[in-house]
Amino acid sequence: MLRIGEKQILRIDKQVPFGVYLTADVPNERVLLPRSQVPEGAAIGDELEVFLYKDSEDRLIATRKEPKLTLHQVGYLTVIQVSRIGAFLDWGLDKDLLLPYHEQPRERVQEGQTVLVAVYLDKSERLCATMNVYPWLRTDSPYKTGDQVEGVVYETSRNFGAFVAVDSIYSALIPRRELTREYKAGEVIQARVIGVKPDGKLDLSTREKSYLQIDTDMETILKALREGDGAIPFTDKASPELIREEMHMSKNEFKRAVGHLLRDNKIAIEEDRIVLL
Predict the structure, then answer these.
(1) Which value, in Å, is the radius of gyration of the alpha carbons in the chain?
(2) pTM
(3) How confident is the model over 231-257, as pLDDT tens digits?
């Protein structure tokens, strides 16, 4: 069976002036390997490893060139052109790979940018790229709780947090409660594994362990006070949502840092605000 998007070994079935036809020994299934790709001295019956994709006229064609990604693989490709239908990526073949606009984040990619994508088949059985790599990320990472990892943010959600591809191949999430700021798709981050789910997906945090993070949180509050003319217009009794939105930390983390600042006589808490001393 001929499998688009994959490398497979096929047998030369027929020679023609413009190349050779290859078969997987399935009746009525043949694919052309253009003459420029046929090795010198190749004969009928010889086996060749090829990659199958559709050419610019949507005809199934074989190539001996090595694609940078195959079907459902995840990796980095470079944008070489942006058009009215999407961006075209260099994946090592004569025909560039289309990254449609509906498979890009809100912030569209630009020419020359390197992006993390997966290869998929669209409704017309054409190979395309998507920046929604979630379905094809692996869940068998070697990491455990406490490990430091590097990953790339590929999607953000107000409800869930920031989705991350650790090492560009493993599925991970920075839960909303662990977000310290806004992240953009394509941003490379350093994080700490705070949990491994039963299905193998990783939970991450860009925050330090609590006993290390508190100094950072205290400095964040002091900076907000200085920038707010010596006051923050809410206290540690504010809603968790407001604290998360304004301070990029949880309510418990905020209360803990405020408590230390009070103890050090650096702030005072009034009825509806915190002031700098």
Answers:
(1) 27
(2) 0.71
(3) 999 998 888 888 888 888 878 888 888
Rounded distance between C-alpha atoms, residue 183 and residue 217, angstroms: 19
Evaluated on CA atoms 130, 136, 139, 142, the torsion sign reads negative
> What whole-number distance in Å separates Cα of residue 124 and Cα of residue 203?
36
CB proximity list for 27: less than 8 A, separation 6 or greater:
none
Q: What is the DSSP letter of 75?
A: E
**Distance, CA of 68 to CA of 91 (rounded, Å):** 5
H/E stretch holding 252 reads helix 251-263
Return all residues near 135 (Cβ < 8 A) that are at least 6 apart: 118
List Cα–Cα distances, 195 to 140, 148, 191, in angstroms. Answer: 14, 12, 12
Neighbours of 121 (CB within 10 A): 13
> Which domains, from first to last, does the chain contain?
6-63 (2.40.50.140), 73-133 (2.40.50.140), 137-205 (2.40.50.140), 210-276 (1.10.10.10)
Q: Where are the beta strands (DSSP E) in 17-130?
A: 19-23, 30-34, 47-54, 60-63, 74-82, 86-90, 97-100, 114-121, 127-130
